[in-house]
């Protein structure tokens, strides 16, 4: 990936989160954090005095899907923090709000950017509803205050050494448990982190305004194909477990929360529940709009080599 952003002054809010930290590194942006660990980071409570120094503001703050979090927790971290941030912005700045394709819920039809949001039908509705409430606030407030903005809605992200669905399946594979998720034909439409980063770079450079920009891979993958790819590359194959996703997710959620992320089965269960989504997104236009080569992120150049490398 390219390592810099040309002639643009960017700040990332929530840079101590997984996505935020990657954007800071890849876009060479200023980090605004909730828990300061590095000298050059800015604490969130000190943002007001420095925010006018930045041309582009990226908001990646808010809790990801985790076991034990309530609607109030998600609402506070997404809607509440977004409301505070919007009050600090001016007409001269460009605001990028990182939302999620989860706001569309689940659908048998291909989901488009202008599809009606149905967050209550997402496998973790409290998260999706809070996300959509923050989106709606951005549209209402930014339009009223004449602030240029873009709401980015990536599909479920995956990356080497990452978090989320694919990472959870790989964690099981590394300890010798090969999951065969059912229904075998259920599909997943995800987003490679490299694609997300390149999209964010283009949006920053072009200052591309949008009320809903879906970012997703140019391909979908079924449970059968995904689990088969993991099985072929796994070194340890102790158990092969065919199990319906909703049952596996329910079982894992009953485990107590553990501080060790490698053994946090309850959060893994929460994340695997998202794999029940079985939705796909219309993402072809985004490659044209942003000028991104679609073949660069095809299955053979993104998900497949990543899994092969992770299990090598």
Question: What do you see in this structure?
Answer:
This protein is an alpha/beta fold. The chain has a domain at 10-159 and 190-217 and 279-292: 3-Layer(aba) Sandwich (Rossmann fold). The protein is 37% helix and 17% strand. It has ten helices and 13 strands. The protein has a seven-stranded parallel β-sheet, with helices on both faces. Helix 1 (18-27) links the parallel strand 1 and strand 2. It starts with 9 loop residues before the first strand and ends with a helix. The relative contact order is 0.14.
Fold topology:
Elements: E1 10-13, H1 18-27, E2 30-33, E3 42-43, E4 56-59, H2 71-86, E5 94-98, H3 125-144, E6 148-154, E7 156-158, H4 165-174, E8 177-182, E9 187-188, E10 190-192, H5 193-206, E11 210-215, E12 221-222, H6 223-233, E13 239-244, H7 245-253, H8 265-273, H9 284-290, H10 303-310
Parallel strand pairs: 1-2, 1-4, 2-3, 4-5, 5-6, 6-11, 7-10, 8-13
Antiparallel strand pairs: 9-12
Helix pairs in contact: 2-3, 7-8
What is the distance, rounded to the nearest whole angstrom, between the alpha carbons of the first and last residues? 22 Å
Q: Strand-residue fraction?
A: 15-25%
Q: Can you tell me the CATH architecture of the domain at 10-159 and 190-217 and 279-292? A: 3-Layer(aba) Sandwich
Strand count, sense and barrel status of the largest sheet are: 7 strands, parallel
Please give the radius of gyration in angstroms: 19 Å
**Strand segment tally:** 13
Shape: globular
CATH class of the domain at 10-159 and 190-217 and 279-292: Alpha Beta
**Largest sheet strand order:** 3-2-1-4-5-6-11
